[in-house]
Amino acid sequence: xxxxxxxxxxxxSYVLLVKNGRxxxxxxxxxxxxxxxxxxLMALPVSSRVDDFIQTLMTADFQTVTVQxxxxxxxxxxxxxxxxxxxxxxxxxxxxxxxDPIKLPQRVLAQVETTAQKAIQQRPLRDALQAANALGAExxxxxxxxxxxxxxxxxxLGFVVxxxxxxxxxxxxxxxxAREAILKRADDAIFLRRNAAVNNERAIxxxxxxxxxxxEQKQRxxxxxxxxxxxxxxxxxxxxxxxxxxxxxxxETRRTDFVARxxxxxxxxxxxxxxxxxxxxxxxxxxxxxxxxxxxxxxxAPGQLIAQAxxxxxxxxxxxxxxxxxxxxxxxxxxxxxxxxKQRPAEGERRPA
Length: 353
Description:
Layout: E1 4-8, E2 13-19, E3 22-28, E4 31-35, E5 39-45, E6 49-58, E7 64-75, H1 78-84, H2 100-121, H3 125-129, H4 132-144, H5 147-151, E8 154-166, H6 168-285, H7 289-297, H8 302-315, H9 327-350
Antiparallel strand pairs: 1-4, 2-3, 2-5, 6-7, 7-8
């Protein structure tokens, strides 16, 4: 009515009321009346915005890849943005009079594509396919300090590269190459396992052979020790036998010496006895027989004297005609001989003792 209107903004919209080229009112979530014929309203969304992008780029080795991601940004300085872009509302307040609000996200995405292209062109295919996180971090740093975005009053809140994909043909080739590499690693692993098994078997066999050699050496040492012990025992036995033989020889030598000396002594005694007997016989030959008989009869018993007398009679028997011996004489002789017979065994018993 009469050009006066009421306007109420959202909390996420920054509103500027411009009248006669001057900002009369500004802020977020404002509500007011204004005179439409002489006033202009500008509403800038200050909430964060996420724009997805997907683009086909070329790597350093001239391979085509598809980069997919998203960028999060917002209008941090509405006044600066309002001076470079037209966010004027229509008279009914339900739309913008220009296409700048629509083109502003496109300008942001254009800078994103340029940044992504620059990052991809510096990497070969294999590195680019594995550098999604690195591309996101690098793109965020680049966009955060981009002069054009800062001039527009924009703030980059985040930059994410979700995927870097090659073409289907390249993907199949890489898959085949990777598959072959995996199979080769599997074959290498099998070879290494078998080689390890062979080496282990060889080590076990060598250990067994070493054990057998060690056992054989121990047995040989035992046999050598036994042989040395037997040789030492035989040598000791030989030495003992030699010592016994030497002892026997020494005993036999001493015995021979004893026998020889005993024989010599016996011979000397016999010679001395023979010399004594010869001397006695020489003396007796020069002596009268009757003297010798008298000496022999000295100290004889009566019976012996009578026996000697009878011997003399027997020698001259041819001259004796008849000899009479009385019984009394025989009884006397027998009685005299009886005590002598009893005394002789007693003397014989004393001699062994």
